[in-house]
Amino acid sequence: MKKDYSQSAEKLVIALGGKSNVTRMFHCMTRLRFYVKNRKLVNEADIKKLPEISGVNWYQDQFQVIAGNEVNELYDALAQKGLPTDEGSAAPVSNANKSIGSRIVDSITGCMTPMIPALTAAGMIKVVLTLLTTFHLVSDTSSTYQVINFIGDAAFYFMPFLIAANAAKVFNVNQSLALIIAGVFQHPNFTAMMESGDPIDFFSIPVTPMTYCYSVIPVILMVWIMSYIVKLVDRITPRIVKLILHPTLTILISAPIAIIIVGPLGGIVGDALAVAIEFLSAKLGFLIVGILAAAFPFIVMTGMHHALTPIGLNAIATGGSDALIFVSQVCSNVAQGGAALAVAVRSKNQNMKQLASASGISALMGITEPALYGVTLKLKRPVVAAAIAAGIGGIVGGLLQVSLYIAQNCLLAIPAFIGEKGMTNLLYGVIMILVSFVGAFVLTCVFGFEDEPEEEASPAETPAEEKKPLVEKIQIQSPVTGTVQEITEVPDATFSDKILGDGIAVIPTEGKVYAPADGTVVSITDTKHGIMFKTSQGVELLIHIGLDTVNLKGQYYTAHVANGAAVKAGDLLVEFDLDAIKGKGYNPVTPVVVTNIDEYIRAVGMAKSGETVEHGACLLTIV
Predict the structure, then answer these.
(1) Exposure string for 345-371, b = 16+ CB within 10 A, e = fewer
(2) 169, 175 Cβ separation under 8 angstroms
(3) Ranges of H-type helices in 448-545
(4) Residue 543 pLDDT > 90
(5) pLDDT in tens, 52-94
(6) Main-chain phi, psi angles of 374, to 5 degrees
(7) I want to staple 611 with a disulfide (CB 3.0 to 4.6 A). Which of 353, 370, 387, 607 is the partner?
(8) Mean pLDDT of the chain
(9) Is 28 a catalytic residue?
(10) Which residues of 200-219 are buried (b: 16+ CB within 10 A; e: fewer)?
(11) How far apart are CA 92 and CA 221, in angstroms?
(12) How is residue 565 annotated by DSSP?
């Protein structure tokens, strides 16, 4: 019989601070991962009591609940409860206290992390294909090769679509609109126009030729810009036609910006970079190889590496005497592999160990995206270590005048070092690779990184101060004697729709209002019918005596306390002439509303509708 997870999911929702406290939920192999508005509302103690849960951890702003093999079922049950899943569009991380550099890195990794499984699979397929052709098990002209190649290439080729979907969640943009922008970048007709070599313009504005397959930054940057375009369009479109005009204008504004300005930036800068490299290689000599090797991961992220490929191919075609592009790529890719494998050795997180191991091997074989986006860039310091090591390796290669005779960018470049310069070039190439790999590995170990906590963290390992429940039950006494009525049944939409907050109502049978708890009378309206009260525990209450009784202008009401008065539970606050108020045709129902309910999980009525309650009895429990 299939296990029912609905009860555990309900308890988990309450312990997380309610649905309104969760902005985003997703999961990995063993953990449910949440972003919440107010972490003080999360009751870790109650979560640990659930039979499916083996532990909890905070990782920066992310709350992780370790559910082991039951993570998928529990995730589905939570999604059915209405928690915003990873398919929604909520901002996952607060960047208020982070530097600009950290915000940029976090945004990029936030867009890339969900696609790491796809990139890892694609990278390993490429590795398998490389091994098959290297050992002549499959010919690179066979249909088998072609099929495996496009299977492995699909994730990279359509990367803009995957990134756009994830960026929409990060920047709170409609996912369909973001995907359309990716589609604009990669539409077959647009691609054909770009590759034709013919001049292209949009209303006489020239469009720079550029291909966007494999690119990262242009799509992320465009979706980020869209987040502001959406807000602008929302302000200028009339409500009556918003459904039609809003998405239309968003695309009509975004698409030209994408193909005229944002997209070509990578190509324009790439062309300038190519010219600069040719110039600097003549001036700086061996140093340019190191500079380029250190910068290559970031060049790839912008898509500018496409502009450098012709330079490298031309060097290969003319004898390989100055193939600095591919030499620097070898250093960069091997360094990424070394840094990722160092993470695999040092990390105590089993998931990270597996990812870093696989992506490290993939990087050594020339596929660096899983290592870059899933490990080194995500952990920040390893990518710095890899860049430094690649730079050192590149300088060594430049000093030794290492040449490549076949276009290759990974460990398989070792045979490509054999050429006109003989075995000496091979030896120097191997030394360059070793410097890049060992340097990245050692520097990553030296620099360290902020590791995610171990998956099997037990409650006993949690610091004592974290074991204390962060959510306490607060009891509110009934301020009046009378008959209980659900807040949703009050014949006033302001209360029944919970516009002011959640709570309960009492139809009074006695004309006296008492303090519902120890606290302070924040204010009493001039008409004496409304009392703003704050308990000593911080709960803010509105006690509203009667509906529309503001029209009585204070008649029939007598206040016994002044604004700011400190009172004890049960102290008399206001008296009112119940019969006179009813005689004037006013409904005396008295809503008791928790106006700062967003700071709590919920307000639970302790008496059913229609039951009689005495003043001083428990009316509400707030958790």
Answers:
(1) ebbebeebeebbbbbbbbbbbbbbbbb
(2) yes
(3) 464-467, 493-496
(4) yes
(5) 887 788 876 788 888 866 777 888 888 888 888 755 433 444 4
(6) -95, -20
(7) 607
(8) 81
(9) yes
(10) eeeeeeebbebbbebbbbbb
(11) 18
(12) -
Cα separation, 92 vs 31, in Å, equals: 16
> 275-279, 318-322, 370-374, 477-481 — which is least confidently predicted?
318-322
The C-alpha atoms of residue 445 and residue 450 are separated, in whole angstroms, by 12
Residue type, 32: L
Structure tokens belonging to residue 68: 């082991």
Q: In this structure, are residues 193 and 210 in contact, taking their beta carbons and an 8 Å threshold?
A: no
Q: Which of 143-152, 279-288, 368-377 has the highest mean pLDDT?
A: 143-152
How far is the C-alpha of 445 from the C-alpha of 439, rounded, in Å? 10
Cα separations (Å) of 596 from 277, 535, 574, 593? 60, 12, 23, 9
Residues 407-415: what's their mean pLDDT? 74
Least confident segment among 197-206, 207-216, 360-369: 207-216
474: tokens are 């607060």
Chain Cα centroid distance, residue 289:
36
Helix (H) or strand (E) holding 201: strand 201-202
pLDDT in tens, 583-610: 988 999 999 999 888 777 778 888 888 8
Question: How far is 91 from 25, CA to CA, in rounded Å?
Answer: 11
Question: Which residue among 27, 28, 306, 618 is the active-site one?
Answer: 28
As a whole number of angstroms, the distance between CA 553 and CA 525 comes to 10
Nearest alpha carbon to residue 350 among 461, 455, 458, 462: 455
Count CA atoms within 13 Å of residue 380 on its CB side. Answer: 10
Cβ proximity of 255 and 181 under 8 Å:
yes
Q: 136, 544, 560, 618: which is the annotated catalytic residue?
A: 544
Say how far residue 28 (Cα) sits from the centre of its chain: 14
Dist CA 326 CA 74 (whole Å):
48
CB 603 within 8 A of CB 498: no
